């Protein structure tokens, strides 16, 4: 399989804070070793190298996704990503999947001028929140970037 693009690399630890009513639970989603607790959808190649979660395009260059085995209703997700090639990625939540077709909300992760941090509803209304391209000056191609996603009931915030 040729390496034609690395879409998204997550840092060693992705911390997940769950806020259910008055209970706060902190859970590390990625163990930095393997894909335990995750499900691969599609033909993209997902693996762990040097404590980083790496995605490469599959041979057929079709969409693919990595999902958690568990469902999270309300959460605070802190992650770091490195965008090394032109590609479209993101964090889906409150979504359904059929093969490689995901319907639902996504926080966009993409190269500059493609609305990273925006909220997009796939196979639905399209852009729900489309950030101003001026904010892309904070997105550093080829470097680690931080993203926080807070979902509580019907409220979604990214920064």
In short:
By secondary structure, this protein is an all-beta fold. It has strands at 6-10, 15-20, 23-28, 38-42, 45-49, 52-56, 64-68, 75-82, 89-98, 101-109, 119-122, 126-129, 144-152, 155-158.
How would you describe the overall organization of this protein?
The protein has one domain: Exo-inulinase, domain 1 (Jelly Rolls). 0% of the residues lie in helices and 53% in strands. The chain has no helices and 14 strands. Strands 1, 2, 3, 5, 6, 8, 13 and 14 form an eight-stranded antiparallel β-sheet that branches. It has a four-stranded antiparallel β-sheet with strand order 9-10-11-12, with no helix packed on it. The protein has a two-stranded antiparallel sheet with strand order 4-7. The N terminus is likely disordered.
């Amino acid at each position: 399989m040729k390496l034609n693009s690395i879409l998204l690399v997550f840092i060693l630890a992705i911390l997940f804070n769950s806020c259910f009513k008055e209970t706060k639970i902190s859970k590390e989603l990625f163990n930095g070793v393997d894909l335990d607790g995750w499900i691969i959808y599609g033909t993209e190649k997902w693996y762990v190298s040097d404590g980083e979660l790496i995605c490469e395009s599959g041979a057929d260059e079709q969409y693919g996704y990595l999902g958690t085995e568990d469902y999270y209703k309300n959460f605070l997700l802190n992650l770091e990503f490195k965008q090394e090639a032109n590609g479209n990625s993101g964090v889906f939540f409150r979504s359904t999947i059929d093969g490689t077709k995901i319907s639902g909300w996504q926080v966009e992760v993409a190269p500059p001028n493609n609305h990273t941090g925006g909220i997009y509803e796939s196979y639905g209304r399209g852009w729900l929140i489309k950030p101003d391209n001026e904010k892309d000056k904070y997105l550093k191609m080829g470097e680690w970037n931080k993203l926080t996603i807070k979902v509580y009931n019907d409220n979604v915030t990214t920064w």
